[in-house]
Amino acid sequence: MLVIIAEMMAGTGGIGFLVIDMQRSFRSADMYAWIVILAVLGYALNALFVRVERRLIHWSYSQVD
User: Fold this and answer.
1) Which of 9, 31, 32, 35 is deepest in the core (most CB within 10 A)?
2) What interhelical angle do 2-10 and 15-24 show, nearest 10?
3) pLDDT band of 6, cuts 50, 70, 90
4) CA 59: distance to chain centroid?
């Protein structure tokens, strides 16, 4: 999240820059498309990290499940 925000503030490339650039040029459909891509990417990365965490520290979750 911090990388995307940094790209929005001072970047000249990257997804954050593209979102701001689309906003500034009034290309709303493209801007929302990039936001949806960011949301899907964030969800997928979160799911991946949860699976890796459960696999690496499985003893921590055995009492909760």
Assistant:
1) 31
2) 50
3) confident
4) 29
How far, in Å, CA of 39 to CA of 60, rounded? Answer: 28
Identity at 53, one-letter amino acid code: E
Q: How many CB atoms lie within 10 A of CB 16?
A: 21
Neighbours of 23 (CB within 10 A): 16
> Could you tell me the pTM of the whole model?
0.70
Q: Do the beta carbons of residue 33 and residue 42 sit within 8 Å?
A: no
Q: Which long-range contacts (CB under 8 A, 24 or more apart) does 20-23 make?
A: none
Q: Which of 30, 32, 3 is nearest to 16 (CA)?
A: 3
